[in-house]
Design goal:
The chain has two domains: 86 residues, Response regulator (Rossmann fold), CATH 3.40.50.2300; 117 residues, Response regulator (Rossmann fold). Helices cover 41% and strands 20% of the residues. The chain has nine helices and ten strands. Strands 6-5-7-8-10-9 form a six-stranded mixed beta sheet, with helices on both faces. Strands 1-2-4-3 form a four-stranded mixed beta sheet, with no helix packed on it. The protein is elongated and about 55 Å long.
Length: 207
Amino acid sequence: SLYAALTTAKPDLIILDIGLPDINGREVALKLKQNPRTRGIPILFLTALYSKEDETRKKHMLDDNVLFTKPYDREEFQATIKKLLKDKKKILIVDDQADVLSMLGKRLVAEKYSVIKADNGEDALILARSEHPDLIILDLEMSDMYGGDIARMIKEDPETADIPVMFLTGMFPKEDEEKGGHVIAGHVLFAKPYDARELVTVIKELL
């Protein structure tokens, strides 16, 4: 049922028991980490199979996932959850091309970013305010609104003015991108088609 739920929803965190009746929780975690759609989701093991001494010896980690044994300290548990959710940077991708949203989204999830998507300017502005992402990757030539106008409205809104914006567009050739030093109107610019590794490197620098 977990796998079925993850086909329609993508949580920011999974709290997973190791001693499940039908399968070992560590096997579930391994499958999730092998799936491009779910590999970026942090996992917290909560189990009675290990003693507190085992937890301490493993330094609260098991298979690169956080480990808590039952019974657990509530305050420490809540603090760990907050840290796991806070550490994951959130990126809003805005593009009216479904393939760009899908491919770029998968790449960023694989890099352990939390991804939200919008395929039009109106939704982008709503999500920028409600989700307050750490970065917005914005197509310049949208079907309903020019990307430059979206960026301007984001920067004029006190609620979103501090969010960095990166333009990703097919409007300019690679030569223009290089001549412009990857910057247009004060925002980083990447021309399509883009080098995924270079794009991820710049994203890490911005965040």
